[in-house]
Amino acid sequence: MHNKTIAELSQCLARGEFSSAELTQVYLDRIEKFDGQINSYITVTADEALAAAKQADAQIKAGTAGALTGIPLAQKDIFCTNGVKTTCGSKMLDNFISPYDATVISNFKQAGAVMLGKTNMDEFAMGSSNETSFYGAVKNPWDLDAVPGGSSGGSAAVVAARLAPASTGTDTGGSIRQPAALCGITGLKPTYGRVSRYGMIAFASSLDQAGPMARTAEDCALMMNAMAGFDDKDSTSIEHDVPDYSASLNEPLAGLKIGLPKEYFAEGLDNDVATAVQAAIEEYKKLGAEIVEVSLPNTGLSIPAYYVVAPAECSSNLSRFDGVRFGYRCENPKDLEDLYKRSRGEAFGPEVKRRIMIGAYVLSAGYYDAYYIKAQKARQLISQDFKQAFEKVDVIMGPTSPTVAFNLGEKTDDPVTMYLSDAYTIATNLAGLPGMSVPCGFVGQRPVGLQIIGNYFDEARLLNVAHQYQQNTDWHAQAPAAFK
Amino acid sequence: MSIERSDVEKIAHLARLEVIEADVPEYVRNLSNILDLVAQMDSVDTDNVEPMAHPMEMAQRLREDVVTETDQRDHFQQIAPQTENGLYLVPKVIE
Prior knowledge:
Chain A is α/β, with parallel strands linked by helices. Chain A has 15 helices and 11 strands. In chain A, helix 9 (302-317) packs across helix 11. Chain B starts with a helix and ends in a 7-residue tail after the last strand.
C-alpha cells in the first residue's frame, strides 16, 4: 500500500480493496517503525487520523467521496491546526495549541483527507537544510548523512521515506522545491496568492506561498484542486479562476517552447547535476519540445535582494511573538522590556535572530533607502527578466539546486554559504511566479531535481509538463532502499 | 559593509531581542558577512527603476464594514501565558 500514489490509492479505496482506516494504520505503523531514523514528524496525530479515516470510510460507502477522501497526508508544522500543537519548528511555539485551522487545513478536511501529523521544518521556515529546527535536524532518507533540504525538509522526507503518500510545504525562497529536489520527490510552489496564506505562520508575507509535495505531478494536481482558490481571510489572495489541474495532464508537449537561462548553467553548478538536468532536457526534445536559450541577466541580484526583503518582512512578522498572548514566556520578568527581550532571546534560535536583526537593521532610520528600496528596485529588474523571457517561451527549465544534498553540519557554520544553495529558486519568489521541482536522476545515491518555472497562474501547464516527463521516465518512482 | 559590536547591541535592542554577551562577536561576524552579500546589489544601476513591493501590483481589497467575527476571547486566552478577568497580564508598566 505504501508504494502507491494518491491517484492509485484513491481508486483502491473506491473499489473497496482496503479501507481508509486500514491504510491510515499502515502509515502510522511505518511512522512508528521508521521515523526514529529520520526525525521527520514533530507531532503524530494517530487518534485524530483514525477517527477521520473512519468518517472517510463512511463517505466512501455512501458514494459521496472525492479524490482525496480517506487519503492520509502530512502537514508542514507551519499550518495552524485546531486543537493540535503547531510549533513552526520553534521553541517559541512548543506550547502552542492552535485555536483555529489554516485555510489549507480546512480545505483538506473538507476534501476528506486524513492528517497523519505535522512535519519537521527549519525554525519559522528559515533555513535550507532543516538543521535550524528546535526539534533537531531531519535526515535524508536516501542517505542518512545528508540533509533533506529545507525549510520543508520534514515534508520532503516523509514522502521519500513512504511515511505519507504526500504532504504540504511552503516556499519563500525555495523551501518546497529545494527539499523536493534533495529528497527525490515532486513539489510545486504556486503563483503568489494562488493558495491562501490564512493560518500559515508568516515569514515573509510578499514571498510566502503554500503548495503540494508528492511523488508525482499527477498527485500534486489532485492536491492543488483542494488547495487553490480565493480566500477572503487572506488580503493578498487572488480572485482568479481555478482550473481542474488534473484535466490537462495528458496534453501532448509537441511544440512546447522551453527556455534555458544561461545563467542557471554557469559557474557554481555541479557538473554531475548539470549532466542529469541536460539529460532531462534531451527527454523533452524527444517529446517534441523546442529548446530556446534565454537570459535572465539579473539572476545574480536575487540572493542579495532576497536577504533584504525577507529579513525585513520577517522582523515585522515575528514582532508578534512577545511573550504576552501566546507562545513562550521567560521566567520572572523584571519589567515589560525584560519580558519581551528574554522571551524572544530565549525562544528564538540563532538563524531566526540573525534574520530579525538584519531586518531591523535594513529598516532602521538612515538605511531604509540604501537597503530596502534598493532591494525592491532589484526585485523589479529580476521580475522584468522573467517577463521578457516569457514573451519567447512557455516554460523555463534548469536545475533546482546547484548541488545534490550536502552533508549534515557541512554548512551550519557559515550562513552565507547556506544561502547560496537557493541560487536558482529565490528569483521566482521575488517575481511571484510558480515553479516545480521534478526528480531527474541521481549523483551517487543522492537525487537531482529539474526545476520548471512557469508564467503567472500557469500551474496547470507546469503539472502537464512534469506529468508527461514522468510518463516517460521512472526517477520519481524510485524509493530509498532502507524504506521500501 | 561591516558592522560593529555597538551596531549589534543597538539593533538587538530595536528588535527587543536579548543577545548573550558571549554571542555578540559571532553576530558581528555573521551579520557583517550577510551585509557584504547584500552589498552586491550596489553593482547594478537602479536609478530609474520603480521599486517593486509586491509580486502582484494590485490595490488592497476592501470589504463591507460589517462584523464577521464572533467573540472568542475566552477560547483565545486559554493559550495565553497569564490572564486575569479577561485581560492579559504583564509586569507593571506604570508605577
